[in-house]
TrEMBL record:
Assigned EC number: 4.2.1.6
Protein name: Galactonate dehydratase
Entry's Gene Ontology molecular function annotations: galactonate dehydratase activity; metal ion binding
Enzyme class name: lyase
SMART domains xref list: MR_MLE (SM00922)
Sequence ranges assigned to domain Mandelate racemase/muconate lactonizing enzyme C-terminal in this UniProt record: 126-231
PROSITE patterns for the chain: MR_MLE_1
Keywords assigned by UniProt, alphabetized: Lyase, Magnesium, Metal-binding
Organism of this sequence: Halobellus rarus
One protein family per Pfam: MR_MLE_N
Length: 383
């Protein structure tokens, strides 16, 4: 079998989809994207596929990954690893379809029959976010994550801190104590504020605080972990096992949240999860993207003991109404009940893409950029 061709489709709201074709008619799909850098990643995917993959064997997934990563003198980082990730999704999809098995069975077999998923909560006022949380709870979700605050200055006033704490308190009250609740600082909080904010959040029994510091300051995670009872998490802006290594060695985090679209794909996410397991670190993969990325992430989760939960942003509770699941031939592919999705059993990634809809949606202009936020003094704020 040989790789013969590829196509890339930019589709709403901000996704880039890859179709990889072979001479035997087997097709694989991937989702290579850095949100806000679609055109850059598109170019990187083209360079990698045309320069290294066309005419080669797609079933040699490990070799192909090493070739795409290691043959470059300059390697790693968000663009190259996200381009590699989408290619890797598609290669594993082809491999699973060739052998007639889900990817997770090719990676060692499943260790669970269903996976807990969490719902991201939006909203600014405590009342609105609590209302949203309660509605999602009644739809079946039992795990949630919310952003701590919007623009947050390096040194903040007690009033701003209190408002952010009130949002967390309102959600905890809305969902009760039998639900998991995580808080994402999103890298918006500075080191001078982080430790005190963690202390203020301890009464709410959080499953983690994510990104309490920017990745650029990850040497500070260990000290924060020593000062709080809340599990510390990070990882959506880390791009390989090598980025995570020092966090494990320093006992700096209890949870990691790697993203299968940014961390080099299924091949690398599986290695990151195995490395984390050797340090007794839980894995909750980040995934606010499309059904291809979600399916790829699930394949690793179902064969990894320490993957305890999975992010999603697809509207699993109402698949017939979800515009994001409409890219699948069967929007009900991911069977959702009681906060869990069932193990996929179809070959490859376990999904069938509605290619006609993909082509139709790709006719729209899609080039999303994240907003630029500013503080009151007009300096740039973290988004």
């Amino acid at each position: 079998m040989q790789i013969t061709d590829y196509e890339l489709f930019a589709v709403p709201p901000r996704w880039l989809l890859l179709k990889l074709e072979t001479d035997e008619g087997v097709v694989g799909w991937g989702e290579p994207i850095i949100q806000g850098r679609l055109d850059t990643v598109r170019t990187a995917v083209g360079e990698l596929v045309e320069g290294y993959l066309l005419g080669t064997d797609p079933l040699r997934t490990e070799y192909q990954w090493r070739k795409l990563y290691q043959s470059g003198y300059f390697r790693g980082g968000p663009i190259l690893m996200s381009a590699l990730a989408g290619i890797d999704h598609a290669l594993w999809d082809i491999k699973g379809r060739h052998y007639g098995a889900p990817v997770h069975e090719l990676l060692g077999g499943h260790v669970r029959e269903r996976m807990l998923v969490y719902q991201w909560l939006g909203g600014e006022s405590p009342e609105n976010i609590a209302r949203s949380a309660r509605a999602d709870y009644e739809q079946g979700y039992r795990a949630f994550k919310l952003n701590f605050a919007r623009e947050f200055r390096p040194i903040e006033t007690p009033a701003v801190v209190d408002r952010a704490i009130d949002r967390v308190a309102a959600v905890r009250e809305a969902v009760g104590d039998d639900a998991f609740l995580g808080v994402d600082f999103h890298g918006r909080v500075s080191k001078p504020m982080a430790a005190e904010l963690l202390r203020r959040l301890e009464p709410y029994d959080l499953m983690f605080v994510d990104q309490p510091l920017l990745p650029e300051h990850s040497e500070g995670f260990a000290a924060l972990s020593d000062r709080t009872t809340i599990p510390i998490a990070t990882g959506e802006r880390f791009y390989s096992r090598y980025d995570f290594k020092h966090l494990f060695v320093d006992d700096a985090v209890s949870v990691i949240q790697p993203d299968v679209t940014h961390v080099g794909g299924i091949s690398e996410l599986k290695k990151v999860a195995s490395l984390a397991e050797s340090f007794d670190v839980a894995v909750i993969p980040h995934c606010p993207l499309g059904p291809i990325a979600f399916a790829a992430s699930l394949q690793v989760g179902f064969c990894s003991q320490n993957v305890v939960m999975q992010e999603q942003d697809l509207g699993l509770e109402a698949p017939g109404e979800s515009q994001r699941l409409a890219f699948l031939e069967d929007p009900e592919t991911f069977a959702f009940e009681d906060g869990y999705v069932d193990r996929p059993t179809g070959p490859g990634l376990g999904i069938e893409i509605d290619e006609e809809r993909v082509r139709e949606q790709a006719e729209a202009e899609v080039n999303w950029y994240n907003p630029v936020w500013h503080h009151e003094d007009s300096s740039v704020a973290e988004w």
